[in-house]
Amino acid sequence: MGGGIFSHFFRQRVLRVCASAAIVSLALSASPASLAASPPAASGPDCSRPYTLALHDHGLLYSSAADTGIDKDFADELIRRSGCKVNVSLMSRARIWQLIESGALDFSLSGITNAQRDQFASFAWYFSNKYYLLVRKDAGVMQLADVTRNERFHLGVIRGFRYSANANRMVDQLTASNRVSQAGGLEPLYDALLLDRIQGMIMEPFDYPVVQEKRIRDATTIISFDDPSVPHGLIMSRKALSPAEQDKWRALVDGMRADGTVLRIFQKYFNAELAASMVQFQSKP
Prior knowledge:
alpha/beta; 6-stranded mixed β-sheet; 12 helices; disordered N terminus
C-alpha cells in the first residue's frame, strides 16, 4: 500500500506552522512552563491550587527540541481559558501514566483509554486518528497476516503506548513470542528500523514528517490496520480531581472544539481535509 495512504492528505507540506500562525489566536503562543490567565468564570475550574500537566515528545504532537506542537498549542489555550496556574513539564509516556494513576500528576494530553486506564483516569476528547504499520520493504510483509507468519519479524513500540484494536492484538501476540522491542520514544525506533534490528513499528499521522525523510521513505512501506479512528483526549487523574472538577475541565475542552479552536490548531500542522477528519468525530469512544 506504501506511502499512498497519506499522499491524498499531504499534498502540501505537513508542517506549516509559520504559514498558518496568523490564523491561530495569539493566546496559543503563551509559554507552557508555568501559565496563568485572567480569572475564570464562576462555573470554571477551581483555581485555588496550581495544577500539573505533562507533555510527551512525539512528532507533531510535541517536539521538545523546537518547543512546538499540537499538544503545546492545545495546553496553552486550555490553561488560558481555565484561568488557573498550571505547571507544564516533559515526561515519558510510561511515567505519565504512572503518575496519573497515583494522583501525583493532574493532566496529560492526547491519551487514549482502555478498561484498565478507565479505573484511574477520565478523558475529554479532542481528536481521533488511525494507526498504521510502518515496515521495512525487505521484511516480506505485504499485509498484516504476514507479520505473525514471519518468525524473523520484530516490532518496535514506545513503552507505555497502546493503540487501536488490531494494532494492540498484534503487539500482544508478538510480545507473547518475545518479538517486541520497547523504546522510550520514536527516534530509537527509527534507528532500530533502519539498522534492521526491528522490521516494523506503529505510527500515526503525527509521525509523517519523519517518515517522509528520504532515509526512512526509501526503506519502508505503510500498511493500514483498518481499525476505526481512536479518540484521544485530555487525561485527568481521578485521584487528583473530583468528578465535578473533571466535568469543568471537560467543558473547557468541549468549548474549544465547538468554537473551532481545536480545528484551527490542527490546521497549523495538517492540510484542511486531514485536520477536519481528525477533529470532527463522536465525543464518546
